[in-house]
Amino acid sequence: QAQGGAKNYIAVMPDADMTASVKNIMGAAYGCAGQRCLAAAVVVAVGDAYDKLKVELVKQASGLRVGYGLSENTQMGTIVSATAKERIERMITQGIAEGATAALDGRNQNISGYEQGNFVGPTIMENVQPDNILAKEEVFGPVLAMMKADDLDGAIDIINSSKYGNAASIFTNNGGYAREFKYRVNAGNIGVNIGVAAPSASFPFGGQKDSFFGDLHGQGMDAIEFYSERKIVIERWV
């Protein structure tokens, strides 16, 4: 068993509750400064949802208070190491070189009293194409890429083109859209109107494609099966 990388996509349909969607995406993208395997990495906005979503995300993300993690006023803390910070900033720079633009750039943070800290602020990248590094590779930091799709089919095609399949979510008020999404998207953890599709420990944690290598997943009965050896007993009584 081996957990692999992740590139977790969120589709937002035009009929979604925009207030609830933005709130959940903010937590999914910037909680733990994006340093978790189920963090939201790419938002695929369908139709006219894109412009409204971008405006609200930039507005709220730009207001997040970045700083020392144990301060009561801090809403987003530091990156785990200088090496990790440099990698995140390098990927942002490469994403821009490949055609993306920064709607909100979190590089070059200067936190008073913590000038040597490993801080990267909330970042939102737009004009991200499927072949851009920010759409393909795991950043593991507070970087949210935004992509457009004409309809649900287009959004699902974009999501399924990823080599990873850890988690994916959809925001919608349409049960038909949700049904199509959960059956057609190739990811092990699916969320409907959920930012982080994290199952409780009683359920297997199921990545697909390059997000998992093995036959039985972690957690739940899969974990018990992994550490169990079956025994077959055949008896006859005369």
- Fraction in beta strands: 15-25%
The percent range for helix content is 25-40%
The level 1 CATH classification is: Alpha Beta
Instruction: Report the structural category.
Output: alpha/beta
Summed up, the helix count is 7
- State the total count of DSSP E strands: 11
* Shape field: globular
| CATH architecture designation | 3-Layer(aba) Sandwich
For the report, how would you describe the main beta sheet? Answer: 7 strands, mixed
Q: Reading side by side through the largest sheet, how are the strands ordered? A: 4-5-6-3-2-8-9
Q: Low-confidence segments, ≥5 residues, pLDDT <50?
A: none
Structural account:
The structure is a single chain. The protein has 238 residues and is of the alpha/beta class. It has a single domain (2-198), classed as Aldehyde Dehydrogenase, Chain A, domain 2, CATH 3.40.309. Helix content is 31%, strand content 18%. The chain is built from 7 helices and 11 strands. It has helices spanning 18-30, 49-62, 82-97, 133-136, 152-160, 175-184, 220-226; strands spanning 2-3, 8-12, 40-46, 101-104, 123-126, 143-149, 164-165, 167-171, 189-192, 208-209, 212-213. The strands form 3 sheets. Strands 4-5-6-3-2-8-9 form a 7-stranded mixed sheet, with helices on both faces. Strand 8, helix 6 and strand 9 form a beta-alpha-beta unit. Helix 1 crosses helix 2.
